[in-house]
Amino acid sequence: MSQGQHVTTDGPRLIRIENRQDIAEGLCANGIAVGSRVLVCVGGASGLGEEHAAALTGAFHDLVAPAVDAWSAVVVDGGTDAGVMRMIGRARASAGAGFPLIGVAAIGTVRLPDAPASDEDATPLEPNHTHVVLVPGTKWGDETPWLAAVAGVIAGDRPSVTVVVNGGTITLSDAEASLAAGRPVIVLAGSGRTADDIARARAGEQAGERARAIAASPLTSIVDAGDPRGIVEGIAAALAGDRRQ
Predict the structure, then answer these.
(1) In-domain check, residue 1
(2) CATH code, domain carrying 35
(3) Tens digit of pLDDT for each residue in 181-234?
(4) CA distance 185 to 211
């Protein structure tokens, strides 16, 4: 694939971008409107309890997906068929939602349709995403600055927000990149691992240094993962503003 070129498959439209300055052109050439509210979702699913997993799945299906459609927003995540990305893709499909769902993935970490995997650890793409932006990289985490940049380009001067579900070390980097871009971060306490570490730090309990720094940011808020309406209300509050006003 050449710069910004797409390939049509039965799954998401694939967009290959090599340079940061070409993000806007590549997105627009593939039908992605710039200047839209953006919900960024980062994290994993390891250690996510069944109760919270069910609550989150229900929240995305019943509340978040319809709300994203109503806001005419775009959802950006990692695009692979795992964790929160799988949950969002399945929820969008089963809810019949129409919002653009855009993954951002380092090309050396994913398995592409009709192409041999470059690495035995490569992960399939989540099939219900509308687009996946393929960026340079051979290891997990290489996509982090690109994900933040793609979300920023799509949002432009419209509001955006990042939701942190569970996650590991890469999720810390994703949250840090969002905060560095001035993007509010909503952490779902009770969803496990990184999210809970940040929530503990906000409560004054023992936590890692990076989690403490994220928790200390005025852009960070904590919401109970078992409170679906609280999650939607937090996202809505973050997306309600408009920097153009």
Answers:
(1) no
(2) 3.40.50.450
(3) 999 999 999 999 999 999 999 999 999 999 999 999 999 999 999 898 999 999
(4) 12
Q: Which residue's structure tokens are 């409170």?
A: 227
The CA–CA distances, whole Å, from 234 to 32, 42, 132, 176, 239 equal 25, 16, 26, 19, 9
* Inter-residue contact 106 to 135 (CB < 8 Å): yes
Contacting residues for 92 by C-beta, under 8 A, at least 6 apart: 65, 75, 99, 101, 128
Q: Which two tokens stand for residue 233?
A: 């209300």
Can you give the residue range of the structural domain that contains 132? Answer: 6-240
Instruction: Tell me if 130 sits within 8 A of 101, measured CB to CB.
Output: yes
